[in-house]
């Protein structure tokens, strides 16, 4: 039941003080024609309502959350404590620079750390999320070519295993997207790449390891092919959790990179934000970065590049997310960053090794941070789809992995355990996956009905997708009320 459906007329609570300034209403034509819909509940009722709603939500703090390519890992509580300090939480973006020197030092220090990790020279924190970072990075690539009078470069190359936002971001910047297939080893097909590269190539978008969880062994040749054609290379940092502190995108030959602080660097993830998708680049692109970079000169000051592409977000980005990321970096240190990556890779390979005798692995070789299973055979032989297994996991208190992605794997389930999970948790998840496989073989109808132990059972997802209800309809309630009064 929604909060609007609870309570009784006249019931209220006293949380906010009485208004101590004159009330000024807009002109009558601009005023609401109907009263604002507000719940009539007591403090006790509203507390119980949101506590009940919170219990129905599922997050990393509730249990195993192996959502592939999303790195849903535990966020240390010290991050939240540091971000809540008054000197960070109670500032205003329009304050004079000399009053926020500590906050500017956070931005500069975090930039230096992340540039070292990625092999970049400069970085902006303005982008609010990964896709926003992609868009910003592509703006840099476009500005670079335009500054050279090279208007013929109109195409961005994107592998078929890329994240769906890659082609969308390229299109938003005005580029045509050229998709190339993966080779038999799961990496970029070099021959297909060579066929499409030319004088019209603006750049290549790639993540390494890719969405299949595989490190492309030909990465240096790939970036060299693009550079020889006069294009630039863009690194999608969504999967950096597998390699941070081990190898740097800049050393692979990438010119620009976006990161996901809300994935790799352990800040809150999901629920619509706030996120942070900082963009780093080599010096050849630094002059095009968005406004308000922090410079150190007799203290800290904001300075904008001469050929800046302008603002991509108000002010300086989601600052408190940067504070959380800096705390995470300080806590792990030089030794802890690569250790986290090693454990992420170890956990993924451990799970894959324990499941490969029952589930078909899309690419049965050493993976990085995640692995992809194909349930095509199980669906053909027993009528159990990737969706059925995912629904079955819900009954065991496990969040499903990513389903039906990447698109080049049929009936795909993509599993990312992350480094913060213990061996005991992984063993429990492995046991559940294996038991679901046995159920699929012996009694598949059980999985067709799953989940049955959740607050909401299986939905008609086709109907839900085609008949979206995106706002609450008060008209029926008002009609009912009028009928009652009459």
UniProtKB/TrEMBL annotation:
GO cellular component: a single term: cytosol
One GO biological process term: glycine decarboxylation via glycine cleavage system
One Pfam family recorded for the sequence: GcvP2_C
Signal peptide range: none
Ranges of residues in domain Glycine dehydrogenase C-terminal: 340-437
Family under the similarity heading: Belongs to the GcvP family. C-terminal subunit subfamily.
Protein name: Probable glycine dehydrogenase (decarboxylating) subunit 2
Source species: Lachnoclostridium phytofermentans (strain ATCC 700394 / DSM 18823 / ISDg) (Clostridium phytofermentans)
């Amino acid at each position: 039941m929604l909060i609007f459906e609870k309570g009784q007329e006249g019931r209220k609570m006293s949380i906010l003080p009485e208004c101590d300034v004159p009330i000024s209403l807009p002109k009558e034509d601009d005023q609401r024609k109907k009263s604002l819909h507000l719940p009539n509940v007591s403090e006790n009722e509203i507390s119980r309502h949101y506590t009940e709603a919170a219990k129905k939500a599922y997050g990393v703090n509730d249990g195993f959350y192996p959502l592939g390519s999303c790195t849903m890992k535990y966020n240390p509580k010290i991050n939240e404590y540091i971000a809540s300090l008054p000197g960070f939480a109670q500032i205003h973006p329009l304050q004079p620079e000399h009053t926020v020197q500590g906050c500017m030092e956070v931005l500069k220090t975090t930039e230096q750390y992340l540039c070292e990790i990625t092999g970049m020279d400069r970085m902006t924190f303005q982008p609010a999320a990964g896709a926003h970072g992609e868009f910003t990075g592509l703006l840099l690539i476009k500005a670079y070519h335009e500054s050279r009078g090279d208007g013929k470069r109109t195409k961005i190359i994107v592998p078929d295993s890329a994240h769906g936002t890659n082609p969308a971001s390229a299109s938003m910047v005005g580029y045509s997207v050229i998709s190339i297939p993966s080779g038999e080893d799961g990496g970029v097909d070099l021959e297909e790449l060579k066929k499409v590269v030319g004088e019209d190539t603006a750049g290549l978008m790639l993540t390494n390891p890719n969405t299949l969880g595989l490190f492309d062994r030909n990465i240096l040749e790939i970036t060299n092919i693009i550079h020889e054609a006069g294009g630039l290379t863009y690194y999608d940092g969504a999967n950096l959790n597998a390699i941070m502190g081990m190898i740097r995108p800049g050393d692979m030959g990438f010119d620009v990179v976006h990161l996901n602080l809300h994935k790799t660097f352990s800040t809150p993830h999901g629920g619509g934000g706030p996120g942070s998708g900082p963009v780093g680049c080599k010096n050849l692109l630094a002059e095009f970065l968005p406004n308000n970079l922090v410079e150190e000169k007799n203290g800290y000051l904001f300075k904008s590049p001469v050929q800046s592409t302008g603002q991509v977000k108000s002010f300086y980005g989601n600052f408190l997310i940067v504070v959380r990321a800096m705390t995470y970096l300080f806590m792990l240190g030089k030794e802890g960053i690569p250790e986290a990556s090693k454990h992420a890779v170890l956990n993924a390979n451990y799970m894959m090794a324990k499941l490969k005798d029952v589930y078909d692995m899309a690419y049965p070789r050493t993976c990085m941070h995640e692995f992809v299973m194909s349930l095509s055979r199980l669906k053909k032989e027993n009528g159990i789809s990737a969706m059925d297994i995912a629904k079955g996991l819900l009954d065991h208190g496990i969040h499903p992995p990513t389903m039906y992605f990447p698109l080049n794997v049929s009936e795909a389930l993509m599993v990312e355990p992350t480094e913060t999970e213990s061996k005991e948790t992984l063993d429990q998840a492995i046991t559940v996956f294996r038991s679901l496989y046995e159920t699929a073989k012996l009694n598949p109808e059980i999985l067709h009905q799953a989940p049955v132990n959740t607050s909401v059972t299986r939905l008609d997802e086709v109907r839900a997708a085609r008949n979206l209800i995106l706002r609450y309809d008060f008209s029926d309630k008002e009609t009912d009320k009028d009928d009652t009064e009459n």
